[in-house]
Amino acid sequence: MKAKPIFFFSFANDQSETLRLQEEERQLREILQHAHDQQQIEFLSLGSTSLDDIYRTFNRFNNRIALFHYSGHSDESFLYLADKGARAENLSKVIGIQKKLALVFLNGCSNKQQVEDLFANGVKVVIATKAPIEDSKALTFSKNFYDALSGGKNIKESFDTAASRLKNEDPELVFNYREIVQREPIEGTELEWGLYAINAKYLDWVL
Fold it and tell me: How far is it, in rounded angstroms, from Cα 94 to Cα 165?
């Protein structure tokens, strides 16, 4: 039997559990359950993810991971895990080895600069952020992205759908940010998330 592609979800909250990561994990699991049940994918989720968890999972399922999703605190150089920060220039090497990887989705704050490390190591498509992102908006964006992807839309169509939904949100919503250093909300209406690809043809990938 042909091995199913794996959607690998990694969640890492801070010690005070300020982010709604359990809710995000629950909703994404619910959205992707049908695809999992229909043998289209294997949904793999790790809560309170450590650095060893990341390496062990990529080693165990080498060349089966089609999508890697991170939710938690981040910045231009690190993804912050349960035990320590994962430096982008190192982690990107492990991620990029995956030959069937279609997408890396970094659902944390201000991590756009990590895209270049990922591209340099073979990753083809990345969703990343260029500013602090508010926690409830991060949940809304990821939920709508995967809802669209599971419905048969390609990566770009799913991104555009999630972006469209987010633009209808109340701009006054301000709670917790997915970065280590708390700050005041940034003025403006430009979408914090960006879709980056080494070639536009890779945005046509569908589930």
Answer: 33
Tell me what percent of the chain is helix, strand and coil, each rounded to the nearest 5.
Answer: 35, 20, 40
Q: With a cut of 50, say whether residue 5 has pLDDT above it.
A: yes
What is the per-residue pLDDT for 155?
A: 97
Mind listing the pLDDT tens digit for each residue in 194-207?
Answer: 999 999 999 999 99
CA distance 102 to 114: 17
The bridge status of strand 65-72 relative to strand 6-12 is: parallel
Residue-by-residue DSSP string for 98-157 = -TT--EEEEESSS-TTHHHHHHHTT--EEEEESS--BHHHHHHHHHHHHHHHHTT--HHH
